[in-house]
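User: structure tokens for this one?
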Amino acid sequence: MIVRMVLRLERLLRGLTRISGQASAIGMVLMILLVFGNMSARYLFGTGAVWLQELELYLLAFTVMTGFAYAMRHNDHVRIDVFSSRLNRTGRLWLDVITMLLVAIPASFLILYYAWPYVSTAYVRGEGSPNAGGMPWLFLPKGMILVGFALVLLEALRQLLAGSRRLFFHYRRPRRAPLAGS
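Assistant:
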């Protein structure tokens, strides 16, 4: 029963990570189109808008922060392979569980804790671009720090659950088959 609940939670968290990766991909496509449009307008027509250039940065913040957890899910993030390459499968599972428990989860909590006042201050003050004609709502790209590290926290929890489950079944002793004739 507990294993089923853990599997359901893992599936839910995996789905959230998949959605964040899809959102990141859409943000990247939009950012590429916007950069191309801004560049074309500037060099072909000699025009441009400050708010469109700043929108590129908003999209960049969105793309990067929603893509962190997705990269983490697919092991496309920076990691120290010097240690893990020397370990067997069980050793890598232990390393991943310990890393999630001692590094990823506490770091995510710390970043969320310290980013909250940074974002809320920007919101309360109504911060906007310092440039004339720039984007309002500077709390949005700052708020992506909260979204990104909440997603990293959820993915770290998923990996901790998955690794712990695999280790549990690795070390669990197989049940003895009943003896013939008994």
